[in-house]
Amino acid sequence: MKNFQHSFKRMFYIEQLKQVGITEVNKVPVQNLSDRDLLHALTIARIKAGA
What we know:
It is built from two helices and two strands, in the order H-E-E-H. It is mainly alpha-helical. A two-stranded antiparallel ribbon has the order 1-2. It is globular, with a radius of gyration of 11 Å. The protein starts with a helix and ends with a helix.
């Protein structure tokens, strides 16, 4: 069950990044980012969108 939650969370983060137009970070596709980098990229995108 935990593995399913983990992969759902990753898919959610990736989809959220794609919706705001981010497909890669530092020339690395979002699918290849670590969980930490995905969350960081999504947080930064949300901050920029609100600024």
